[in-house]
């Protein structure tokens, strides 16, 4: 039996090219609808993957914060070690740094206010832009819907890649923090052992 198989999954038995084209046109909407369903499934899986990466990023952020707290504790212990080894030198150094920190804090607060104001302004503008874009980019037929869905899938893939890069950067920073903390702990331990029983004013 002479039967030809269509590339899109159905058979044409004894049909002409015109009939095949007509059949394809009549089923075009079905194919697009099926493609849209497949894209939505891919978007759903991508969304779950992105959420997982973001959640991991939040956990890594907590680890970074904890390590920063440890670094602050090490800063404090370093000052204590200096105060024990050289009391008078530490006293004058502390007074000088206190004055510099007060000036730096005032400048930082001033910059932070302007920075936050700028961010709020940008976010408001971004919201307006997105709203206008949604009004303009309204699909009017099946092909436009398919093109829009593919574009959304592409944007989602870019977002996943961006979040993955951020996570890798966080891991790299954490590794650096851990290495630095370990070195500082060893150094401070050595200083404490070396200064045991020895106390100088300067």
Describe the 3D structure:
- This is t-SNARE coiled-coil homology domain-containing protein.
- Belongs to the SNAP-25 family.
- It contains 4 helices and 2 strands.
- The protein has about 200 residues and is an all-alpha fold.
- It has a two-stranded antiparallel ribbon with strand order 1-2.
- Strand 1 (about 5) and strand 2 form a beta hairpin.
- Helix 2 runs parallel beside helix 4 (about 140-195).
- The termini are far apart.
- Tell me about the largest β-sheet: 2 strands, antiparallel
Computed over alpha carbons, the radius of gyration is 32 Å
By DSSP (H or I, 4+ residues per run), the number of helices equals: 4
Count the beta strands: 2
How large is the share of residues in beta strands? under 5%
Please write the string of helix (H) and strand (E) elements: EEHHHH
| Average pLDDT rating | 74
Shape: rod-shaped
Spatial order of strands in the largest sheet: 1-2
């Amino acid at each position: 039996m002479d039967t030809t198989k269509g590339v899109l999954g159905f058979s044409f038995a004894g049909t002409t090219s015109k009939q095949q084209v007509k059949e394809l046109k009549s089923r075009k909407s079905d194919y697009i609808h099926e493609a849209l369903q497949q894209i939505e499934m891919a978007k759903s899986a991508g969304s779950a993957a992105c959420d997982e990466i973001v959640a991991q990023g939040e956990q890594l952020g907590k680890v970074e914060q904890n390590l920063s707290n440890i670094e602050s504790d090490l800063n404090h212990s370093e000052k204590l070690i200096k105060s024990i080894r050289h009391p008078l030198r530490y006293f004058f150094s502390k007074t000088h740094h206190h004055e510099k920190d007060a000036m730096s804090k005032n400048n930082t607060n001033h910059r932070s206010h302007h920075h936050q104001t700028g961010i709020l302004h940008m976010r408001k503008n971004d919201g307006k832009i997105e709203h206008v874009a949604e009004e303009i980019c309204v699909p009017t037929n099946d092909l436009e819907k398919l093109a829009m869905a593919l574009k959304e899938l592409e944007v989602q893939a870019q977002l996943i890649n961006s979040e993955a890069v951020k996570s890798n950067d966080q891991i790299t920073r954490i590794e650096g923090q851990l290495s630095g903390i370990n070195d500082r702990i060893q150094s401070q331990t050595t200083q404490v052992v070396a200064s045991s029983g020895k106390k100088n004013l300067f």
